[in-house]
Design goal:
- It is a single chain.
- By secondary structure, the protein is of the alpha+beta class.
- It has one domain.
- Helix content is 26%, strand content 34%.
- It contains three helices and four strands, in the order ααβαβββ.
- Strands 1-2-3-4 form a four-stranded antiparallel beta sheet.
- It is elongated, with a radius of gyration of 19 Å.
- The N and C termini lie far apart (54 Å).
Length: 134
């Protein structure tokens, strides 16, 4: 009985160490997506008007990936070697220089993966819970 309990505990611990759906296994079609989302966050910090203030209490913060959703691949996409389409939405808090007050920001992007890796394109606003197109 004790041996079975120890074995069950080890199996549970092993399962906890498995990478998530956008982790890093080589065979994972979403491998590298998390790194691309972090790169997108850096681009928002550098370019979004809400993130331009240099004052410490007015910097962009509280970035959150609100949703990620895989999109279906068309036969044309597959013929081009595309292996995945994912739409993600991110929200953050920044500083509106015109209104001189904190302001929430959000944006959606579509990530496309092919043999060369991931590329990102702007996407129309989506439902922030499901990533469904509005």
């Amino acid at each position: 009985m004790r041996r079975a309990a120890v074995l069950a505990a080890l199996l549970l611990l092993g399962a906890c160490n498995q990478p998530g759906p956008s982790g890093g296994q080589a065979g994972d079609k979403f491998a590298g997506l998390d790194a691309e989302i972090l790169k997108w966050r850096s681009q928002i910090l550098a370019a979004d008007p809400l993130c331009r203030s240099q004052a410490q209490d007015q910097k962009c913060q509280s970035f959150e990936v609100a949703c990620k959703a895989e999109r279906n691949l068309s036969p044309q996409d597959q013929a081009k070697g595309i292996t995945a389409h994912v739409v993600a939405a991110m929200s953050w808090n920044g500083w509106d220089p015109k209104l001189r007050q904190p302001q929430a920001g959000s944006r959606a992007s579509e990530f496309t993966k092919d043999a060369a890796g991931w590329t990102r394109a702007e996407h129309a606003p989506v439902n922030m819970e499901s990533c469904a197109d509005l």
